[in-house]
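User: Some background: our group keeps a shared notebook of sequences we're curious about, and every so often someone picks one and asks for a predicted structure to add to the entry. Today it's my turn. The entry only has the sequence so far, pasted here. Could you supply the structure so I can complete it?
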Amino acid sequence: MTYREIKTVGVVGTGLIGASWAAFFLARGFRVVATDPAPGAQARLRDFIGKAWPALNRLGATAETAPPEPVFADSLEDCVLQADFIQESGPERADIKREAYVKMDALAAPDVILASSTSGLRPSQLQQGCHHPGRILVGHPFNPPHIVPLVEVVGGAATDPAALDRAESFYKSLGKITIRVRRELTGHVSNRLQAALWREAYHLVASGVVTASEVDAAIAHGPGLRWALMGPMLLGELGGGEGGLRHFLDHIGPLIERIWAEQGQTELTGEVKKTLVDSTNAEMAGLDTEAMLQERDALLVDLINAKAQARNLP
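Assistant: Of course. Here's the predicted structure to add to the notebook entry:
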């Protein structure tokens, strides 16, 4: 199968992730057709794009001082029929997504790729009941997609390798950093790595070892600073000095294994959830969420632009 040239991107679902995708595609010069059945979705999308535009300008994605208007389709059918590529970001529920993919598959021409932003579902789940499953795949971004460059490209049991190649080349052409996930896993790769950290972070807070603010400080002002520059494999290589990763594993490996053996098994019971929420609410006291988001995005842009100047970081 040869997949068509992409001029119009269909954005199905305009919540937090879908709206961010829509802003990103507009900033890259594509015509965007969006749809979402939620009341007030069109106004919220327009508001999000306006707020996202300064960051997109700083990332060099556009020379436009004001964002172009996306087309807001009244129905899924109207959106899909106009699109050369679909980025679906609907609710994270398998039943809702499967129903949507059966409808989109019936409407879209066979040379239109259907990509899902799903955080955890496997693409084979989305292909069930579809007549053209070869063009269905996962293109999982990291929040917020209009700023953070990572996209995980994942194929299902029936995905056409050419569709994976085309989707990956499309994302890369927009400046995204892609990884090809070679086997379907719940949560793909990045969320599984996050989940490993969350497991221990939640255990430490729930068991009273530290507060939410302290566990956040332990990451944000320690290893998180290094993780923003390179991943755990290269950090191990550098951490081993002249001996590299081999020395690191030989030297620190026994400690790592002792820590693994002691790490907590935490269930998210009602009591545990309350402990986590109460501790996090205490951390948020006096903080302005909207201002925090603005500062986060501004610093992310600074970091991305700074990393782009580095010649020896991957």
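Suggested note for the entry: The chain has 13 helices and eight strands. The radius of gyration is 21 Å.
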